[in-house]
Amino acid sequence: MDKNNFAKTPPMGWNSYDYYDTTATEEDLLKNACVMAEQLKPYGYEYIVCDISWYAEGAGRDREHYQYLPFDTLSMDAFSRLTPDPVRFPSSADGSGFTKIAEKIHALGLKFGIHIMRGIPRKAAHDRLPLYGGKYTADLAADPGSICPWNPYMYGVRDNAAGQCYYDSLLSLYAAWGVDFIKCDDIAVNGLYRNEYFSGWHEIRMLHEAIEKCGRPIVLSLSPGPAEIGKAFLYEKNANMWRMTGDFWDDWDALKRMFERCELWQDHVKEGCFPDCDMLPLGMVGKGFGEERRTRFSLNEAKTMMTLFCFFRSPLMIGAELTKLDAETMLLLTNRALLSCLQDGSSGREIYRDASAAAWKNTDASGNVRIALFNLEDEEKTLSLKLSDLEEALPENALLTEIFEHTEAQFKDGVLTVVVPAHGVRAYFTTAQV
Amino acid sequence: MDKNNFAKTPPMGWNSYDYYDTTATEEDLLKNACVMAEQLKPYGYEYIVCDISWYAEGAGRDREHYQYLPFDTLSMDAFSRLTPDPVRFPSSADGSGFTKIAEKIHALGLKFGIHIMRGIPRKAAHDRLPLYGGKYTADLAADPGSICPWNPYMYGVRDNAAGQCYYDSLLSLYAAWGVDFIKCDDIAVNGLYRNEYFSGWHEIRMLHEAIEKCGRPIVLSLSPGPAEIGKAFLYEKNANMWRMTGDFWDDWDALKRMFERCELWQDHVKEGCFPDCDMLPLGMVGKGFGEERRTRFSLNEAKTMMTLFCFFRSPLMIGAELTKLDAETMLLLTNRALLSCLQDGSSGREIYRDASAAAWKNTDASGNVRIALFNLEDEEKTLSLKLSDLEEALPENALLTEIFEHTEAQFKDGVLTVVVPAHGVRAYFTTAQV
Amino acid sequence: MDKNNFAKTPPMGWNSYDYYDTTATEEDLLKNACVMAEQLKPYGYEYIVCDISWYAEGAGRDREHYQYLPFDTLSMDAFSRLTPDPVRFPSSADGSGFTKIAEKIHALGLKFGIHIMRGIPRKAAHDRLPLYGGKYTADLAADPGSICPWNPYMYGVRDNAAGQCYYDSLLSLYAAWGVDFIKCDDIAVNGLYRNEYFSGWHEIRMLHEAIEKCGRPIVLSLSPGPAEIGKAFLYEKNANMWRMTGDFWDDWDALKRMFERCELWQDHVKEGCFPDCDMLPLGMVGKGFGEERRTRFSLNEAKTMMTLFCFFRSPLMIGAELTKLDAETMLLLTNRALLSCLQDGSSGREIYRDASAAAWKNTDASGNVRIALFNLEDEEKTLSLKLSDLEEALPENALLTEIFEHTEAQFKDGVLTVVVPAHGVRAYFTTAQV
Amino acid sequence: MDKNNFAKTPPMGWNSYDYYDTTATEEDLLKNACVMAEQLKPYGYEYIVCDISWYAEGAGRDREHYQYLPFDTLSMDAFSRLTPDPVRFPSSADGSGFTKIAEKIHALGLKFGIHIMRGIPRKAAHDRLPLYGGKYTADLAADPGSICPWNPYMYGVRDNAAGQCYYDSLLSLYAAWGVDFIKCDDIAVNGLYRNEYFSGWHEIRMLHEAIEKCGRPIVLSLSPGPAEIGKAFLYEKNANMWRMTGDFWDDWDALKRMFERCELWQDHVKEGCFPDCDMLPLGMVGKGFGEERRTRFSLNEAKTMMTLFCFFRSPLMIGAELTKLDAETMLLLTNRALLSCLQDGSSGREIYRDASAAAWKNTDASGNVRIALFNLEDEEKTLSLKLSDLEEALPENALLTEIFEHTEAQFKDGVLTVVVPAHGVRAYFTTAQV
Lengths: 434, 434, 434, 434
Description:
homotetramer; alpha/beta; TIM Barrel; Immunoglobulin-like; 2 domains; six-stranded antiparallel sheet; 12 helices; 21 strands; 26% helix; 21% strand; elongated
């Protein structure tokens, strides 16, 4: 198995976190899957991903003080492997884990993903519970010096036979459940420890090895960032996507900083290897965090985000509750001209960037070019782009169509000049393209 | 109670670590106490301190791989408080803890100290064991995000009522046992976490409060360093001593670096407040580490160490196995002229220092001055000191006696010039002084 | 000469910078001196200090773009020594430098100080101008790799004979002029370079040596901070005052941060050695910066500043234009109870501090105690202080008088409880004290 | 002009630094050019680059104390532009600069390059000398806060019209001289200043603009490193090569670290864009540094270096004195199988790397694969490579020929296993390839 074949193009789907925080239920997953199957699948969206704490029996309790309750009870099987909380995921009560949910999602023509924390449950290690296979116990796999700075569930896994046995057993279980996608947390960056104490670096390798052994093509997504550019080779060899930033929310400053990260990582976007801009915080979000609300991004900002993410070829994971999608957001998520940037063979590249503006191009396998001009300032501005900066055979007189508004534009004397609203974008394809 | 009265002068004694590592037994403590009572007590040595892991039932096992066994069994009472391993400390088998050992040590006219790790046993927190008083359980006091980077036993304690209750119960128990001295580990410096995650800062305060409540004058020693100079006020308000460096061993480069630390902290040596140079790695050491050996310090280096530590007024904790003390080491440890620098009212001060040499003075309450010239280079050197740099009424013609060799010297034309051996020292008192 | 005798108590005076920036003239200095002699001298203020750029012929030109004009013409004598700009300091036109100004200031019973930049004029080095004595040229003393990050005038001085010759000649000239105080800039902290390139560390020593040789007791003030605590010994051996922070202005956040710095440096306040809180930005300031304005400090904030600076025993250099002093500011600057904290033998010490409040005490040579409670929050608050925290023989029933408002207060059951306004202070002396 | 066309493949040539330090002369350049034309040109070597200090009249004087004499006299034209020292470069005495040397080198079928320091001569700025065009003077272009940490010649250039005018005039002069290659120093990394003070970032842009304006295809090489990966886009847009490390010499540890840098930068090797491993310190080097000597690299180490540099596709600049080339070094430099890795369309990629071993592949435009296994340890080792790791259509039974020794090898059961000497390499091409 070549892991780069598991995700030839950037994975697209939905993730429960932005709306549900730690509280998503079986019903929540399935109702979002239904919307996706009907409305979004034709555009390429296919993953339904259940985010953090699906095994935490008290998830969401005392939320004001704790996102993750210290010393909370985690649902676990006899081999130190976490299992879905049967209260929130009733179909798992018979011990079948996520099997039935995965089956229903597969039946809709979609794929199913879960979030995991790097490591092995702390409680299992302290109680020296057995690992699958009968050869080792959890304390032998666990590294008591390796913890997550913000989550109390797990210990990091040692780079030894017991550790690999644990990860192998985990992936074997997930494969049996029908999992297609794993988002592993606390692993893409060393957020707390000195680097020499961080076991995440070898846990990335161990997870990859376990996936290869399990025989099922499971996409591996690493979280959170900022991923370290000096570890690019490690990510590329072992994973399919890795987060370039910390948690991304609907905040304009965070979006501006994303331009810097996209510049840094643009040479690392390859088949099966996708630096990840994080979820799309659009539509209705925040319910599990105590405040159900509409995205704070203005329409211009949302277009800027979608254009950057697509031109760069980031994975696209929708954060919005899909049952509450409004038409405006739907249009953004399903803009075919934009989504075509994600196709196999396309490649994105920054043309210029400074504190006030940026320009990108995205070229498809046939050489068709899309261009985007971003206004990063707080006031409307006239931006320009030189034809010579495109380094491509775009004819001088090419007719350009704006991706969102379908207005037309042309280079004049080798320069394209457009008025771009504050925080907004003007993106173009050539008429022949779509 | 004013904690500064607990230690008006730098504490002097013996600590089990340098020789026994984690393996000291009841018998070991008592035989060292006997030697101290007979030979060292007249010079001011009085503390017998049992260092780390006295509660670890497997201490010393698999030493090649682990100094502290992960997920090892720790002896504990019903209230989440660690108790002595009854195998190594048989007198504790009846549940009396260190009471009987402390009694025997007190009967010798000595004082008794123990080492503790900052925090509460992890296992107690995961099992939600009760705390003394019946009001709280260990999980409420424990912070699962606060661990020690190199030791797997404990979680840091939260700054809340459950946490204070735990520390109060701990000190109450220690007071009942007859403990006179606590060396708390993993607390004087944030070795692993970002500062904002390090609970040690408030645990220092909580320990001090618990000592005040327990009603027994227990000296509080903080370890390991390098203590942060920016936290000097915190240490001074709450503790009696705090380590200025990481673990200090018989290594010349480490001793050279100690000069820098002594310069930095010299203004913070006060009654009840003693920046700490760490144990004296002299005589026979290293047995518990797998290699019983004589100190690697040459005699000149050992004199340099003793002179710096005494002039600076560091606590003096002997690391040597006392039953194996040789005459040369004994002479160093009991040099009255040198030890008089530790007396109440004395104060030490650097006169100059660069990479190749240093000079210190120590002035007693009566204004008598001792001076020391240190050669930090690898070859014999002639060092000098200007009388005017002493800022004291030392008469031009004062007769100086060398502290170790009893040779005499004098200032000539306001300058003292002496040949000092490589890595060595020449230290002087005025004849009238001792 | 013992430099600690030059300033047995914290120097007090006036500095031209806060009001005039780089533009002070002979007339400005003298008119401020007149006010000081009449109104402030009785309270201990005595230094008139001319701050930066007195040699810069274009000082103040193109101020919008540059505070210090690049490649500007500096007035210089034949030996690479900067001399006053004869346009702004007409009495220097005859080549007598600051002699006549110093004479007039001395005649008023005051002392005279000047600002210098660390180093030797760059132009002198590039033109290989001679140094005084005929033995060396400026290029031999200058280190072309040592510059100031924000000022283009000087190169750092090498630690060689040519360099010492230059500094000796400089101090010899200043002594001849009648200078009593030097504020040397770009020297107390390495603001730009890696430490190993920073020649300031040896220039501090060289300046001290030059002062000793010049035979005149010239106070040495080092600027700007934040001075490094690890260099405390260097400062104390060679200088009389050193800045604990970057430039301090009338900004509440900066004042709050000063509490942290005062805690850090409190053990280093000694006769002749004064960590420095920087100028008092009170009254009218800012004219040379393009905006003549009243201090932004509210009266409560100004009291907080004066109380902290006096309790800590910082030097007190007024930043206000003295000819425009209002009565309220005058009262603050001349509060005798407060200023008595600066007396010889007094010592200040923090009692507690956290993000919302702080308490200090200052004890004089006779053991009289003043106490201050600071409210660092944005709303009025009740603060308290335990008698036991004073560690002093203040009788339980001592009658306390507030330093600014002369209201009375007493400890009750060992606790003093007072309402303190937002950003304000309540400070007390015992009635017998003043 | 598209700067990526100036260097479609990694530039190859010779640089005077490793042998001559600052002292190369006209004669030295020409005699090395003769050797290159005869012996090395057939293999692709074509640049003769004169390194630092060709304008310094005293270059090499007092070498024991200074590599670059402070305040030395630099040969300069009337417009603040440095010109060759006429003593060492006699043909420039008529004011024609490097014109005649360039002509001779061109006549040999070679290209000519020079080293420059970022910036404008300090002396010119202090003397306010004119810039070409009569509109500006040097002080307006110079930033007195921007210096090189280790070289005293220049000030950084401001991002203004005067600054661009200076760089334009410089490139215009160089184009007139016939310069084909510029190695600009103190520009690829901020070695001294805080980033916000470093003018090099905009000077990279300004130099590129000046090259575009000058009309001559001049290759731009940036030095020294370690270049910042976060600035990759800046380098790629404006330069042709940039150093990945500090100065590289014949030191095994430095060579081992180069593997890490090659991994980091491998995705940035593109047509016209070459991360640079620095000169090849082979053959005879060091004369100008005071010690003429043979390279310290063993033959195995030299092969490791050549193989890594070629597989990665670094520029290849010989450091050896060419007139003293021995046969062994000559063979290394002219290995056709190895040099073919540099061809247009080839691309290199790390396969694995840890502290003890590394493997690389290099694939040419036709899909032919070369592979290399490096032993980074101090003892002979057996290394292996899985066919599946090559991701290429190399047939299972492909016959491999070792690049240096012409021995043959084959994969067995999908694994290639070879014994590799300490510090050495085994590199293979398939028989059909060369």
